[in-house]
User: What shape does this take?
Amino acid sequence: MLGGTYDPPHVGHLIVAQDILEELSLDRLLIVPAGDPPHRAAVLPAEVRLELVSQAFGGNPCFEVCRIELDRTGPSFTVDTLRWIRLTMAPEELYCVIGVDQLTVIDTWSRYEEIPEIARLAVMARDGEAPSADDIPVPFENVAVTRVDVSGSGIRDRLREGRSIRYLVPERIRERVEAEWARVGSAARESKGA
Assistant: This one.
């Protein structure tokens, strides 16, 4: 499982997802957009992010987009999603893939200590930035992925500045991301002026 806010999905997500498939020798990778992210607010609505993720990851039969966190009410806690996957899909082996940034704050996650009972924690290590297990309260393994300096916040900044996001997001979703940003940005400006 590779969860995230995907606000918006970008080429970095696709590149690391492919690396994860290969490095862990997976049959499939479940892509799970957060419905109500507990640690950061999403700009784009959850249903829009889900549609964009479906389009961005479409075309590769090894990627499966899952809407479980949008269908559940309340904050999207990883431990609940992993339990649902374990009970509903009954995978032979289950990995929860996260970034190094999330690993360093995992002790702020809801019931994080239960995660190793449900799934193996795989941490995306980019360009040798593999974390040390000394200060981490849960067992994990490193997974090498390609470092791509693209982020959702950087893309949102470019959109805010009226700059192009060409080549930062898959071309098949670029116009939709720009249109949704124009709609969301316009609504935000109107609410501030009211």
Summary: Residues 10 and 169 are 4 Å apart (CA to CA).
